Amino acid sequence: MRLIPTLALCATALTAAMPAVADDAPGKVVTIITSADAQTQLMGMVLTMQSMKTGASGHMLLCGPGGDIALKDAPESATAAQPPMGMSPQGLMQKIREAGATVEVCAIYLPGKGAETDVLLDGITVAKPPAMAAALMDPDARVLSF
Questions:
Q1: Residues 6+ apart with CB under 8 A from 83
Q2: Which of 1, 27, 48, 144 could link 140 by a cystine bridge, Cβ 3.0 to 4.6 Å?
Q3: What pLDDT sits at residue 26?
Q4: What is the pLDDT of residue 2?
């Protein structure tokens, strides 16, 4: 019959630890997408959205091939539906932005393409390196990179 007191003690310890776990939850998630692979891009979007659902604010930086997700005339890999939910990287990125996340392309993305900001989807801007560095170094942020 020692099992009951042991289980009770474990339950009490677990309950006491729960607020500490919640306090450690990030206030911000910064996601960097550089991959050209649609599944990798989409997984970054999925985890960003799930993080935001826990209460974290979202900030997304799209660089290199990842920046192509932000284009009005994006490649098919960014717009094609992926299994199992039939969502595209660009479609989920738009939902994340509409949910309140900041979505930016790297400062060197557009100059590297020889393009201007008018090629970007509405609501997506160009990151400013000092502000992005501050977001990455924020002790309250978790950084995800795909």
A1: none
A2: 27
A3: 62
A4: 52
Q: Which amino acid type is present at position 110?
A: L
Q: Which phi-psi region, left, alpha or beta, contains residue 64 (left: φ > 0; alpha: ψ -120 to 50)? A: left
Q: What is the pLDDT of residues 54-75, one digit of tens each?
A: 999 999 999 999 999 999 999 9
d(CA 2, CA 19): 28
pLDDT in tens, 78-119: 999 999 999 999 999 999 999 999 999 999 999 999 999 999
Residue (of 116, 135, 113, 123) closest to 90 by Cα position = 123
CA atoms of 114 and 31, how far apart (whole Å)? 25
Residues 69, 43: Cα–Cα separation, whole Å = 13
Pick the closest to residue 41 from 93, 85, 107, 96 (CA basis): 93
Helices (H), 54-119: 76-79, 89-98, 109-113
The distance from CA 87 to its chain's CA centroid, rounded to whole angstroms, is 15
